[in-house]
Sequence to fold (538 residues):
Amino acid sequence: MKCEECQERPATLHLTKVVNENKTEIHVCERCAKEKGYISHDEYAYSIHDLLSGLFNFDSSFSKEHKHSQEENGALICPKCGMTYHQFTQLGKFGCSSCYYTFADNLNPIFRRVHSGNTTHDGKIPKRRGTDLKQKRLIQGYKEELQQLIQTEAFEEAAKMRDKIKDLEKKQWDTEEYKDGGDE
Amino acid sequence: MSLQPFINEAISPWMKEEGPDNDIVMSTRIRLARNFEQYPFPIIAKEQELAPVVSLMKNNYHEQSFDKYQDLQFIGMEELRPVEKRVLVEKHLISPQLAEKAKNSGVLISENEQVSVMINEEDHIRMQLYFPGLQLENALTQAFLFDDWLEEKIDYAFEETRGYLTSCPTNVGTGMRASVMMHLPALTLTQKMSKMIPAINQLGLVVRGIYGEGSEAVGNIVQISNQVTLGRSELDIIEDLQSVVEKLIEQERHARLLLVEQSELRLEDRVFRSYGILKYSRILESKEAATCLSDLRLGIDVGYINNISKTILNELMILTQPGFLQQNAKETLTASERDIRRASIIRERLNSEN
Ligand SMILES: [Zn+2]
Ligand SMILES: [Zn+2]
Fold:
């Protein structure tokens, strides 16, 4: 297979680009992929810059109102590292962890493009810092099960599940209280 | 000096172990990207914000051991000569991006070279763990344990809905890139590989060639890795990768059998011609060397050649890269000097085998 860009070198990179939920395949050589910004030096991911500028142009072709809000977004600035939203779209990189909160309203479409439609983490939680979070996820899971049980009218089991959730929530409450006390 | 073992030997200690399916899978790698919550990411951080990251990593982990990963050595990028950086890149112990940096960046490498932790590359921390052959699940377990060990002393940038926060949006969530390096000569020779790629892409996986000095894929070696890092668990990601790799192994083995059966003497002839070139030529370009090495390795795997060890492909691929050649020569070499040097190193290495 020859490279789609230069029609010269063999296509050694085969990428899938997701735009508006349509998947397009790209077959290019390493050099063209780098020139077009599909890959960075050691990564195989697309250049986020390419995706972001695409998104930017796409958005600004909308109504004037939209354009206006886009300009406002451009003026968004991260209080911690000083990166502006405009800089972020140019660099394609976040400046610090707070940027994720500062630009939060604009991130879902970007993540959806890069991660096959996904926007929410579903993996590892830090072991030391994530204990509370794990508990929260466990309770959330039980609550979903409870809804299922109620829907299927399995009331006896639902009652048991409800008690289990109560216990867990109480335990969580206790540890939080204890921790607050400890901080003082 | 602590650097010497890392740059003198072409082959890392872990590569000498026999891994599962190592007739086709050369290595498995898991990389996790992590950041400190309190400091800006390297792309924008000031010197006084990068320095504490380096000193914290150095103070807490230099000369420390965790499990099989003994005696981590910290090496600052500013201490290294360009050729030494290049050797570390060729051994995949650091990335080309890290090699471009100097002050306030470095790497921690374990004695067996199975773990390297890059510091202040694109993210504050990028740990990578290597395993011989196909060992995705084991690699993930080990990577998680190593990650937990690092986390004991670091407050990671993590957020409930987005997961591990990284500088580039393409790594957010798990921060994980899992990859498997495979030698697929028969699928490439029979041109079946390119037909399988679209299906692999459908699963959010990327197929990429391995490159020598030029920009073309060489040596019939491909790397398959995940592209998506958000919205799927690490285990789900490696399960998809595992199933694709298993399918490719099956297809490659089948294609090799057919090649041996149907090519009559042609495949054997090709293998021994390549062996001859490697054994006797005086000038060898990197691309030709890679092609011949791939043929030789295939010849060993299908049983035409018995007196050469299997790791020769891994070893000579690294040993004949520009950085290693120059480290070995102790001087800067032009491209044509490198071709001469490459030929002589390969001759020596093959003669030492029998
Ligand atoms: Zn091209
Ligand atoms: Zn920021």
